Amino acid sequence: MFQILKRSAFNLPERLVTPEGTYTKRREFLRQFGFAGGGLAVLGLGAQGWAAQPAGGGLKYPATRNPDFNPKWTLTDEKVAATYNNFYEFTTSKDRVHRLVGKFVTEPWPLEVTGLCENPMKMDAMEWASLHGVEERIYRFRCVEAWAMIVPWTGFQLSKLIEKAKPKPEAKFVKFVTFMKPDQAPGFLNMPQYPWPYTEGLRLDEAMHPLTIMATGIYGKPMPKQHGAPIRLVVPWKYGFKSGKSIVKIEFTAQQPKTLWESLAPEEYPFESNVDPGVPHPRWSQATERMIDSGDRVKTQLYNGYGSHVAKLYSKA
């Protein structure tokens, strides 16, 4: 006869215990930014640490919507957006991604900031989000494949993280590296010809722009796995493939980083890849886009409609 051992509620399993070295480094980081002593309470993490938090890391959803990014647009249907995803790490079939993410483990999720910076750091993704605070923004999202949606992202400005990392003068670009877990995502083994892991990059001034965010949620909820849980990049004036999902490392570099799609087909997926209706893809026009829920075809806007915010980044003057 088996004996069932019932543990007390305060007894954490070994897998959730923070390693001593990680705890010490984290305390030192918090001390640097004024969170010494009461730092854990300020971050809203509690004495048990991030690993003991439910999905979303203790962040409150829905977050407050930023009034500067609250246009009276009709949002894309949430279910349609959740079942129409480009995520090649799982499959090339958009309508199957959400069916294949069950084994994908997104908690805990260490996120490293490294490269040419004064303060290289490594913390869990939800600690980053708690440290900087999150808000909701409604953005247009435009895929290079000429489909589009309008969604409410929850996240924080990437510039806040960059400012704390303190890039060195020689840092001109930011490289983003996503996860590499072949045992949890079948696309890695099904498409071995791809230069995994998925990598993307931005110029430093693009990464610092206030529109560029690190998103941890969508539709007022923690980020679903098929959308890039637990943390992803969102750059609304660029084609969607520039917004890497499930990011594990952010690296400051002096040279333009190699990216997955540019490495495969530079004539189709150049590094800059701003939304531009006047520059056709080699295999289709970019003059119009299809809204994924209604099927309506609308005119593509230069910089995806964010020209008043970002055109100066690309001025010849």
Descriptive report:
Strands 3, 4, 7, 8, 9, 11 and 12 form a seven-stranded mixed beta sheet that branches. The chain has a five-stranded mixed beta sheet with strand order 2-1-10-5-6. By secondary structure, it is an alpha+beta fold. The longest helix is centred in the first third of the chain and has 13 residues, at 20-32. 37% of the residues are buried. The chain has helices at 20-32, 39-43, 78-82, 125-132, 158-165, 187-190, 204-208, 260-264, 307-310, and strands at 110-115, 121-124, 135-142, 147-157, 173-178, 199-203, 213-218, 221-222, 232-234, 247-253, 288-291, 297-299. A hairpin with a 5-residue loop joins strand 11 and strand 12. The model is unreliable at 1-55 (pLDDT under 50). It has a single domain (44-140, 148-268, 305-314), classed as Sulfite Oxidase, Chain A, domain 2 (Alpha-Beta Complex).
